[in-house]
Amino acid sequence: MSEIAFKPSPSLYPFESRWFDSSSGRLHYVDEGSGPPILMLHGNPTWSFLYREIVKSLRPSFRCIAVDYLGFGLSARPAHFGYTAAEHATVVAELVERLDLREAILLGHDWGGPIGLSVASSAANRFAGLVLGNTWFWPPDRSMRTFSRIMSSSPLQRAILNRNFFVERLMPVATARKLSDEEMEHYRRVQPTPEDRVGVAEFPRQIVAATPWLSELAVRVPRELGAKRALVVWPMRDVAFPAGKLLPRMRETFSDLVVVELARAKHYLQEDAPGDVSAAIRERFAP
């Protein structure tokens, strides 16, 4: 399995593609603008396309680096790769080292939270701040374990692999606005075959399978990153990551924290409220 041949629309995604030959495969990313670097990490089943409006908004003042994990977006699909959260974090850490990022800001939601926080907590001297959306960095609670078990079952794994279930069924109900046909095509066409969706299928299994890794992260994040400048932008209509259950843990962890509640946004806050997210980042971190 290799890179995806799909060419993004230059009007929707007006960025230069860049490539990094990691130890596990060829990684695609964009690197736009100048200023303090912001490392943007996506969740499931998305890719750097998710951050397109935020990159456009912030690149006059920030260096915006948006990554496609291996198995996602335009990156390679190496057959030997396990697509675990820990492996993704290793590859992203290699990119951070290769780009020699300093005084960087981490921006992550969904799986981009634990993956990015793993990278940042292992190289805390490279990161000046954190922007976290709807995410977590600790072992799963009962509702997350239930979701993991359901999505890891044989029928749902077949649906994810054969019918692109995450894109076709979950994304439309997890965005407050209706994505255009062209926008949906940008999520469909980067994973056109079951083989291209192996990484998407693995992420729900990782919620439980990565419990030991998440347990270590739950200790490391407060210790290494708890005093960093932090911004949380939380979509209040996200039923998968309810603010009432998860925001208190964020407030307990970060001593220098600003919280912005996005009243109308659902899970994919980058699609629902890119302007609000960009404005909050500028207010918190503008040079």
Notes on the structure:
- The chain has helices spanning 52-58, 85-99, 112-122, 142-152, 154-163, 165-173, 181-188, 198-209, 211-225, 243-253, 269-272, 274-285; strands at residues 18-21, 26-32, 37-41, 63-68, 104-108, 127-132, 229-235, 256-262.
- Helices cover 44% and strands 16% of the residues.
- The chain has 287 residues and is of the alpha/beta class.
- The chain has a domain at 18-139 and 212-285: Rossmann fold, CATH 3.40.50.1820.
Oligomer: single chain
CATH topology of the domain at 18-139 and 212-285: Rossmann fold
* H-E string: EEEHEHEHEHHHHHHEHEHH
Low-confidence stretches: none
CATH superfamily of the domain at 18-139 and 212-285, by name, is Alpha/Beta hydrolase fold, catalytic domain
Strand order of the largest sheet: 1-2-4-3-5-6-7-8
Helix content range: 40-55%
What is the averaged pLDDT score?
Answer: 97
| Rg over alpha carbons | 17 Å
Largest sheet entry: 8 strands, mixed
CATH architecture group name of the domain at 18-139 and 212-285: 3-Layer(aba) Sandwich
The tally of helices reads: 12
Helix and strand composition category = alpha/beta
CA-CA gap between termini: 42 Å
Number of strands: 8
CATH class of the domain at 18-139 and 212-285: Alpha Beta
Coarse shape = globular
Portion in strands = 15-25%
Top keywords for this entry?
alpha/beta, 8-stranded mixed sheet, 8 strands, 44% helix
